[in-house]
Design brief:
about 150 residues, single chain, about 25% helix, four-stranded mixed β-sheet, alpha+beta
C-alpha cells in the first residue's frame, strides 16, 4: 500500500506538559508505542471536545476547554497500524504541576497499559514513541520551548 493509498483516520489529541516541559504519554494494550492521549471523534463532536473526552477516558484527568491551546492539524503514519495515516487535531495543555503530582491524579482506563512522562531530550528519535509525536509534534514543541 503506497502513501496515496493509505487509509486516513481522523483523531484529536492533547499534548500535556508538566512544569518542567515533559510530555505525558500513554500506551494502549496491544500496542508498542507511546502517544499523547486522544482518539476518534464521536458523531458530531468537534476536535476540542474529542480531545477533552479522550483525555478524561484514558487518564481520568478532567480538563476544560479554556485550558486547550490549539497547535494545529498534523498528519503522520499511524503508530501501530501499518497502512494508516493519522490526521490529528492537536491541542496543548501546560500544567503547572510537576510530573509526580499529575501522576498521582491519573486513573488510567483499562485499555491503557502504561503512562509515562517523556523529557525534551527523549522527544526526537525515540522508537518507543508514535511518529506523530516524534516527527511532527516534537519539533513544534521544541521550537517554542516546552517550558515556556
Amino acid at each position: 500500500m503506497t502513501g496515496a493509498d493509505a487509509e486516513v483516520v481522523r483523531v484529536a489529541a492533547v499534548v500535556l506538559t508538566d512544569a518542567a516541559g515533559r510530555v505525558l504519554t500513554v500506551r494502549k494494550r496491544g500496542t508498542d508505542r507511546f502517544m499523547q492521549p486522544g482518539g476518534k471523534p464521536e458523531p458530531g463532536e468537534r476536535g476540542a471536545e474529542t480531545a477533552l473526552r479522550e483525555t478524561f477516558e484514558e487518564t481520568g484527568l478532567q480538563l476544560d476547554l479554556g485550558q486547550l491551546e490549539p497547535m494545529g492539524e498534523f498528519s503522520a503514519p499511524a503508530a501501530n497500524e501499518p497502512g494508516l495515516t493519522v490526521v490529528c487535531d492537536t491541542f496543548r495543555v501546560k500544567l503547572d504541576d510537576d510530573a509526580e503530582a499529575v501522576l498521582s491524579r491519573i486513573q488510567p482506563a483499562a485499555e491503557i497499559e502504561e503512562v509515562r512522562w517523556v523529557s525534551q531530550d527523549e522527544l526526537q528519535g525515540n522508537d518507543d514513541l508514535a511518529p506523530l509525536l516524534t516527527d511532527i509534534i516534537a519539533p513544534a514543541l521544541l521550537a517554542e520551548g516546552l517550558d515556556a
